[in-house]
Write a structure and sequence with these properties.
Chain A has about 550 residues and is α/β, with parallel strands linked by helices. Chain A contains 20 helices and 22 strands. In chain A, about 35% of the residues lie in helices and about 25% in strands. Classes of the chains: A alpha/beta (about 550), B mainly alpha (about 375).
Amino acid sequence: MTILEAIGLSKSFGSNRANDGVHFKVQKGTIHGLIGENGAGKSTLLKMLFGHEKPDSGQIQLKGQTVQWGSPREAFRAGLGMVYQHFQLVGTLKGLDNVILGQEPTGSLGRFLPAFLQPIDRRQARTDLEPLIRQKGWQNIPLDQEIEGWPLGAWQRLEILKLLYRHCEILFLDEPTAVLAPHEIKALLDDLVALKTAGKTVVLVSHKLPEIMAVCDEVTILRQGRVVGREAVGETSVQVLASLMIGTSAPQAPKDTSLTAPGSRWTQEGGTPLLTLQGVTLHDSTQHLDVLKQISLEIFPGEILGVAGVEGNGQSPLVELLRNPKAFRKSFLRRLGLVPHHESLEGSSLVQTRGEIRLKGQSITTCDAKTLRGLGVGVIPEDRCQEGLVLEMTAWENFILGYEGHPDCQGFGMTRLPKILEAWSQACDEFDIRPRDPWLKARQFSGGNQQKIIMARELRFGPELILCCHPTRGVDFAAADLIYAQLRAAQKRGAAILLVSSSLDEIFHLADRLVVLYGGALVGDLVTRQTTPEEVGYLMTGLGHHGTT
Amino acid sequence: MEQHKWEFIKKSLFRASSGLRPVAAAGLGLVLGLLITAALGESPLNILKILWEGAFGSWYSVGMTLAYGTPLLFSGLAVAIGMKAGLFNIGAEGQLTMGMVTATLVALRLEGAPPLLAQALIVAAALAGGAVWGLIPALFKITRGSHEVLTAIMLNFVAAGISSWVVLDLVRSTTTQNPESQPIDQHFLLKPFEAFEGAPVSAALVLGLLLCVLVWWVLKKTVLGYQVRAVGLGGGKAPSVAGISVPRMQCLAMAVAGGVAGLVAVGELLGTAGRFRLGFSPGYGFIGIPVALVAGSHPLGLVLTALLFGALQKGTLDLELETTTVTRDLALVIQALMIIAIASEAGWSPLVRFLRQKFLKAKDREADHGGH
């Protein structure tokens, strides 16, 4: 019996069709997988199902009846519940209070009081919850303690408990395993199966195929805003799902997954690497897990090394580490306990616990961002608005950000405005930045032109190493071509480029060699010309990882 | 070419007009204040006349306006510097108190020293005392993540306590019953300018003006100023990716801000009083906040707003004497209305946008909205 159905849902944001006629059907009492890469339209679909966004066209049917949500609250009342990737719990409240928050049972004592003044009947809440907990066998839930500091697996159980307490019929879980340790993942999957046997319906949103295969009955695959497949798990294979998700023909196991990339031009010629990582491990001290595991790689001058992987598998921490290794040291203040354990000065809870990073043979494990700039490292960050630009500053000011100390930009501590403006106008020619007015604020440029400003800035002084993340994300074709040409030119000049991208097309277009990250570990090191997107897709979805070990 | 020039002039005018917005807000506040007096049965014109005469009617009045404005110049600048680095320096009151404490202690030690040397040392002491007090919230912020507003407010009370102890127990005046310190050496005192007919306007005003220009120049022209502004505007992430040490910039800005606040002591100790009178500040540090806000934290705009607030202070003093229904509190009411007018700027910004679209050519508009 179909419990929830979306019929031809469409939603556009500007010119971007986030969802394009999506049909989505969930059977009662099953576990349904919803998979797709980042940007495939999963979040938009969920937002419409939960009443956060109104669809442009199409309708939603719940138990055979067409519904139109006026607000998220209505969807919730109708029995749709969601466990978000970022938990919606209050760390300083006890577990019990977290569960009943917003739906507190009140005693009979306060019959004459208005609702908001009534005392909370915690005993009632406990009697309501106890059968649920006993049924699940969750004895270790911190009902009577502040939940701060408890493992995230316990938080997640509280979230699920919260939904059950509110009598939700359909439970959505958004990337539930992203933050969990391996044993917690196993427990979660068992819990989901138990929920199914209890008659609940579960929708599991994920891009980790092995987990989907392990528990789901049916899978819907989204790609670029459309449903590209709907498969019964028993009748399909991981390969088929992966190919639908990534948009290639069926992925195949690479013939050779050894981590040394035999046949690479650079290793054969015996050149010296520009950047070397040896067994680098990053530990997240709040979540107690390693986000980078024993990463070893080399980049040679004049080489573009692609980093492939489904997003969230360690790419961001890798780049953040490389652009400012010092921020990941156990600092003096941290050792003294002067910095709260959950954030360092840079606001990160990550610590490099093992490994060595070398640039031109010199260890840079303790270098900070400023020193690295001096050594010729250019950074094209992932989030151009937050990390790349100061939006409220003018274009020329952003054009020197990070290089304000360079002799071309200052003399005797004063900024050399005429010289900077001259360089800006050159950059405008070379990178086709529009408009050319250096006094406009960075905020006033379009996304593509903002990216060009960053490119122009970072390539201006001929860096030897370029850490380049998603260089063409949200950028139109003309601008993307220009960015590719500029990266190639830098490569020809002898620069080494680390290219992190969620687009395999981009990596295959630019990179000479590529490595694949899955779950924070390097699962492949391949020469682009000797591999195929199918093989890389296989590694990206964790198949090589689970298949070979 | 001629066309091009005209466009440029229009654009510059526009940029300047956005700087005039606070002035418009001040006018709005004043008009609302006058409406209130009208409701009390006073003639608004008469009130305006008394305000004007009181603040600018004679050289003496002008002098008093300047004298009231001088400490606000320092405290306003202290708040503005914090703002530029993205921090809300609400602790100027404590910083100026500590500047006063150190300056007084040093001044009393230096009895009989050559005046110029002594004055230099006293200024340095005021600077140092304020700087240390400004640095503390910044250090707490970068090591523990404590919010600078909380720590700075609390430190205001600590400074008040320390100053009472120093003045009443360490260097209490032996000749008067007032809660004040012993007088400092008469030779150290700055002479009031004679043009102002006895109003206590001294070199402290000149120091304040120079400081405003200096801060403006540093922020606008130097690499250091660039880095501070980037930290203030960038929310921390982009500057730190670019290799600018955000904690260091925040510490530096707060130390400088505190030091500037501490310089209020120069006008008070070397100019008007010649000793530490407890309670000498009617909340200069706090009035500094609207002074900086009205000026949009612009160091040069500050000069105008500090003097405006000084004029209000002096003008309303006369209101109390010359009318029966209006008291000094009107000054506070007008100040508050001005701040509300500025804070609600978003409410009247559609008007500004409308004007902008009328004036700028289509080409520029495209550039303007390309990012959205």
